[in-house]
Design a protein that fits this description.
This protein is α/β, with parallel strands linked by helices and 274 residues long. Helices cover 31% and strands 23% of the residues. The strands form three sheets. It has a six-stranded antiparallel beta sheet.
Length: 274
């Protein structure tokens, strides 16, 4: 498995520690950006040496895979191992998709270059919203298959079947992910957090200036995973036996302008670093 994250700490990869003997992390950028693309191709070539049946690539939610065909062409010239690209899957957040698709071109690009869209959180939206999301998605990509679910529950066998039955060739475009437009990300360390209300108060204060927050925080002797999506913050116990790398990542909404606003705040129990 190859897991990509825009932040300096790969939070998603942390949760897979000990669960995969062939886990590769690529952090601090998009694998489709020139800043990481060479490392991405090298990592794929190395993973092919493991001779696994399937290699899963978990790209950042802000990634633009428009140049995936170019990546595959370079990969074919880099390795002597044979491979077949099954295709791409994008996850649609039922609660926020209609807002995000208007604000983020990367969402449009992801749908355009995917063969399967998984419409998640259908239990939190009504039927009219589901219809509107399906219509909007197919207006971007008329050939895409759409599966509706909750809690991201989709059968791997169904994913492989759908991808195997679709054409995966899509028009190659220059990716929107470039070093110049890479979002500014911060890392944060918390200390002396006594309860969830302490943590929630801090996160609520900086939430308006962030695109995304996610990571792990100790509250007493219990480890919690905290994350934000749009205007929602979730804090849940993290049921992990071991955790080598504890981190918390903040992706800013408006770069340095957002950072300056956060720096003006009197924030206790948190230290933020670039």
């Amino acid at each position: 498995m190859l897991i990509n994250d825009f932040g300096k700490v790969n939070i998603d990869a942390v949760e897979f520690e000990g669960k995969s003997n062939s886990l590769v992390e690529l952090t601090n950028g998009s694998i489709f950006c020139s800043c990481l693309k060479d490392d991405f191709i090298t990592s794929l070539a190395l993973l092919l040496d493991y001779e696994k049946d399937i290699i899963l690539i978990e790209g950042s939610g802000l990634s633009d895979p428009s140049n995936m065909q170019d990546v595959l062409k370079v990969l074919a010239n880099t390795t002597e191992k044979s491979f077949r690209f099954l295709g791409s899957v994008c996850i649609l957040d039922g609660q926020y998709f209609l807002k995000e698709v208007q604000a983020m071109e990367s969402v449009v690009r992801q749908i355009s270059h995917s063969q399967l869209a998984v419409l998640n959180k259908t239990d939190l939206i009504d039927e009219d919203t589901r219809v509107e999301i399906r219509e909007k998605t197919r207006s971007i990509n008329s050939e895409i298959a759409i599966v509706e679910t909750t809690h991201g529950s989709v059968s791997p066998a169904d994913v492989i079947r759908i991808l195997g039955a679709t054409l995966n060739a899509s028009e190659t475009l220059e990716s929107l992910n470039t070093p110049e437009n890479r979002p500014l990300t911060l890392t944060a360390n918390f200390h002396d957090i006594q309860d969830k209300s302490d943590l929630l108060a801090i996160l609520k204060k900086i939430l308006p200036h962030t695109e995304r927050m996610k990571g792990f925080v100790w509250i007493g002797s219990q480890l919690y995973k905290a994350e934000s999506v749009q205007d929602t913050i979730e804090i849940q116990p993290a049921n992990m036996r071991t955790l080598k790398n504890i981190g918390f990542v903040i992706i800013l909404k408006n770069g340095m302008a957002s950072l300056r606003e956060i720096q003006k705040m009197e924030l206790e129990r948190i230290r933020i670093q670039l």
